[in-house]
Specification:
Elements (H helix, E strand, L loop, with lengths): L6 E2 L5 H7 L5 E7 L4 H16 L4 E7 L4 H6 L7 E6 L2 E7 L4 H15 L2 H14 L3 H14 L3 H13 L3 H10 L2 H5 L1 H14 L7 H10 L4 H13 L3 H14 L7 H13 L4 H14 L2
Parallel strand pairs: 1-3, 2-3
Antiparallel strand pairs: 2-4, 4-5
């Protein structure tokens, strides 16, 4: 990206190119002049960092020698001067030279506070997960985490890897998370889902386990293994039914394992999921029988 690719804005186009456009994305205005040495050093830094975040923000430049009214209105007394606009208003800025890491931090703070694209991306990722397009979600999240390593993004990345059954990669991600992110409730839910599915492996085949149950309907070990196979198949409805039946038969079996497994599944599905709501009601009614 070169300096020439940054759009020049004038007094005549400032409203349309900055004020109105800032209602769609963050607009960064670089006030400069041809004689300003520090401006020439700062502009390429703004360009590079903005290009990495082009979905969320855009840089334009204003020559103050040619557009003195704008500079006067914003009370610019020295250059380089950088102003950020969002929803038609100046929301932040700085004057003077900045290093590349400082500019990067400035942009990241703006994105966290004002970017509309972050909301759109979260919605897009959740839709990808609902459609079971786990690889697509993983690609989007890995890119997003580079600029916004939030607990929510890490929790969604773990969920996409669960869908891909890439448990080794999940282990590596969890090991690399900071204590603050690990403690986050969304990350904890994602980790619980991972542990639930990781521990669902069984040695016997589905037909072998069903044979055991047919021969001995009271074989709770076989029923637990059958519930794990249903879990692997994402057949949550039947899985919940099997575990509820087990809880009804012997709620204390293996220190209440059926109930623990049910609660883990409900957490994995989410509190708004219809199966989760129905299962919780059924479990509650059994507890208070």
């Amino acid at each position: 990206m070169t300096t020439e690719t940054i759009k020049s804005v004038s007094e005549a186009t400032f409203v349309s190119d900055v004020i109105e456009k800032s209602k769609e994305k963050i607009m960064i205005v670089d006030f400069w002049a041809p004689w300003c040495g520090p401006c020439k050093a700062l502009t390429p830094v703004l360009e590079r960092q903005a290009f990495k975040r082009k979905e969320q923000l855009e840089v334009v430049k204003v020559n103050i020698d040619e557009n003195q009214a704008i500079a006067s209105q914003l009370r610019i007394q020295s250059i380089p001067a950088v102003f950020a606009f969002s929803d038609g208003q100046p929301v932040d800025g700085f004057m003077g030279a900045k290093s590349e890491p400082e500019v990067e931090k400035f942009f990241e703070t703006l994105i966290k506070k004002f970017s509309k694209k972050v909301v759109d991306e979260t919605e897009e990722i959740n839709n990808l997960l609902l459609e079971e397009r786990f690889e697509d979600a993983k690609i989007v999240l890995e890119q997003l985490i580079r600029s916004n390593p939030s607990p929510e993004n890490f929790s969604l990345l773990i969920k996409s890897l669960i869908g891909l059954k890439n448990f080794d990669e999940i282990e590596q991600i969890i090991k690399g998370l900071s204590p603050d992110i690990i403690k986050d409730s969304m990350v904890q839910v994602a980790i619980s889902s991972y542990e639930l599915l990781k521990n669902s492996h069984v040695e016997s085949s589905k037909s072998e386990i069903l044979d055991k149950i047919n021969k001995n309907p009271s074989d709770l070990d076989a029923k637990m293994n059958y519930s794990k196979i249903l879990l692997q198949e994402n057949n949550f409805s039947e899985c919940i039914d099997v575990l509820l039946e087990m809880f009804k038969e012997d709620r204390e079996w293996r220190e209440g394992l059926a109930k623990k497994q049910l609660l883990s599944i409900f957490e994995h599905l989410g509190s708004d999921d219809a199966l989760s709501k129905k299962g919780r009601r059924s479990l509650t009614s059994l507890i208070f029988v």
